Amino acid sequence: MNPLRIAKNWISYRRTLNELGNLSSQTLSDIGVSRYEIRNIASRSFR
């Protein structure tokens, strides 16, 4: 992978992590995501 792609993927990972982390527990429950799954979901954008 080239450095530019790695940087873009890292930004996407951090953005996803922050956006999901800022949601309320009720909203996460409504979309079927637990707080413990946030990093796993965000890491999919880093691959």
UniProtKB/TrEMBL annotation:
Domain called YjiS-like: residue spans: 5-39
One Pfam family recorded for the sequence: YjiS-like
Entry superkingdom: Bacteria
Protein name: Uncharacterized protein YjiS (DUF1127 family)
